[in-house]
Amino acid sequence: ASNNELLFREDSDYEYFLEVLKTRKEKYNFKLYAYCLLPQHYHLLIEPTQSENLSKIMQAINTSYSLYFNKKYNRFGHLISGRFKGRAFNKDERLLHQSIYLHLNPLRARLVQKSEDYKWSSYPEYIGVSDKGITDKDYILSFTRDTLPIGSRGVPEKYKQLVEELEVV
Hints:
- It contains seven helices and two strands.
- It is mainly alpha-helical.
- Strands 1-2 form a two-stranded antiparallel ribbon.
- Strand 1 and strand 2 (42-47) form a beta hairpin.
- Helix 1 packs antiparallel against helix 2 (54-72) and helix 6 (138-145) crosses helix 7 (155-168).
- It is globular, with a radius of gyration of 16 Å.
């Protein structure tokens, strides 16, 4: 957010942003592998389709949310400062590591004691606690299948175990 302002002031702001993500995902048909909404910024792990580019998707998300936010809080001007920062990743096991890194952000920011306690990320969806229906988690979770021991309880538990191991670090 601009000027160290809060991007999300209350729960309804987070909820509206998730609704924006859902509608823009439907319109632009991108994959949303993971997300994390923090008070002053957000992280998305997305894969655009070939027909849509990342800049157009980000512009649609930011414009929709900014219009809502400015109207709700009776403010004017830019809400999001500067251009988004994006990094390209190969569509391989590195996505698993990126999603875990993203899901650890609330813990690193000291917003929670455990990642699973933060409700404004896709982590609860990954571990089967909630399902907002916007995260395409199956591809990333497929990388945990190979590491499951015989008799293991399943993929979400393995993902949770990987995150919890890094929480300690």
